[in-house]
Amino acid sequence: MTVRPWTLPRALPALCGWTALAALLLPAGNPLRAVVAGVFLLAGPGAAAVAWARPGPSWRDRGPGRVSAAALAVTVSLALTMLTAEALFFTHSFTVGRAVLVLAVLTTLLTVLPRRLPAAPAPAPAPPPAPSSGEPAGRSRRPGWLRRPSGGGPAVRWRTLPVAGVLLLAVACGTASGAGTGVSAVLQPHTSAAASTGDADVPPPVGADQPPGAGPWHQVFRDDFDGTGLDGSKWTTCYDWNVRGCTNAGNHEDQWYLPGQVAVGNGALTLTAQRRATSGSDGKVYPWTSGMVSTGRDNWDGNPRHTFTYGYFAAAIRTTDQPLGMFPAFWLLSADTRGGLPELDAAEFINSNRYVDLNLHAEAPDGTDIDAHYAHGPADFAVGYHVFGLDWEPDAVTWYVDGVQVFQVTDRASIPTTPMELILNLAVGYQQSPPPGVDSTQVRVDWVGVWQH
Prior knowledge:
There is one protein chain. The protein is of the alpha+beta class. It is built from six helices and 18 strands. It has helices at about 10-25, 30-55, 65-90, 95-110, 160-175, 185, and strands at about 1-5, 115, 220-225, 255, 260-265, 270-280, 285-290, 290-295, 310-320, 325-335, 345-350, 355-365, 370-375, 385-395, 395-400, 405-410, 420-430, 440-450. A hairpin with a 5-residue loop joins strand 6 and strand 7. The chain is elongated, with a radius of gyration of 29 Å.
C-alpha cells in the first residue's frame, strides 16, 4: 500500500474554499463574491470527497471517467451544501459566512486526510504471439465504456450517481419543508447592518404604511416616536405580571427588562439589550438586561392603556444585526388571560435576522393548543426598516411584509375574539444564549399604527 501523493490539483478544492470565505469580505453587490462562493459550493466539497473516497478517475482524466467523476462531485457538493444549510437553519444559526466556513473546513479535512492506495501491480508477463486469425489474444471483449481507464485505476461506478441523486433529492425535500431554505439561501449574500449607520435611516417601501385594500379604515392608535421620551399614555415598559422590572420566565430567557433600556430619539424607538448582570425583583440574577414596551398595565391590578379587538396592526422595524441568542418580537397578547393564550405574532426574529416567524397561538375548546406558523425569508431584515403588518378579522388573520401578503389563517375556530395588548420587545437567550463575543445589540422601531373598520 502507498499513500496518495500531495499535488496541487488535490489541494485545489480546499484552496477554493478558503478563497470563497475571503471573498465574502467583499461588498454584498460585488459579483466576484457570488461567483467565487458559488463555484466552491457547487464543486469544492464534492470534489474533495470523491477524490478521497475513490482516488482513481477524476475530472482530470480523459474520456467517460471525467464526465462521471465531475457529475458525482457536483451532486455530492450540492448535497453537502444543503445538509449544512439545513443544520444551521434548524439551529437558528445560519449565515452565509458560517456555511462556507463549515464546508471549507470539511473540504480541507478531506484534502489532508491520509488515504492509502493499492500497491502498483507487478508487470504482467509478455503475451504470447498473436494467432494468425481471429481476435488478437489478450484483448478485452468488454465494450469501451466499461473498460478500466489507462493506468490501472478502478472503473467509474455509474451506479453511485443515482445513490447521490437520491441523497440530493431527500435533502431538497427536507429543505422544502423547512420554510423554503436551500442552496439559493446559501448563495444569497449576507450584509451586516452594522456596516453603515446610514442603513438605519432607509425608509420602508412606499405604501407599506397603509392598511390593505379592504376598507374603509380609520386609525385608532399611532406613535411615530418623534419626541425625546417614551409617551407614558401609550406605553409601559413591562409585562402585566411584574413590578420594578420583568421577564418571561416561561421561555427561560436571560434578560431582565428595565425602563432604562428603552429610549426615544431621532424619530425612533430603540430597545437595547446589554450583557450586564441584573438582579430581578423575583430574587434571581439575570446575565442580561433589555427593553420592551407594551400598551398593557403598569401592574397586575391596573388597567391596560390600550386594548384592541380586530384591526390592522403594523410597525416599521429594523431588527438586530447580532441575531444569535436574540429574540425581538412585535406581537399581541390577550389582555384577559394576562400571559395566557391567545397570542398573535406579527413578527418574531428567533436567533435570526434573515427569517421572520409569523404565528397564531390559541387554545381549542377541549384545551388542546392551536398553532399556525410560517417563516418568511430569506431577506436582510437588519438593513433598513421593514414593515410588518397583521390584519386580524373575525374570519381571517393575514400577515404582510413590506405591504405584500405572505401568510393567512382562515379557520374561524382558531381566530382570537378577546381584546389584546400590543407589545414590542427584545428578549435574550431563548433557545440559545448569545455567543461570548456579543455584549450588546439594539432593535429600532420607526413607527407603530393600528387601524380598524
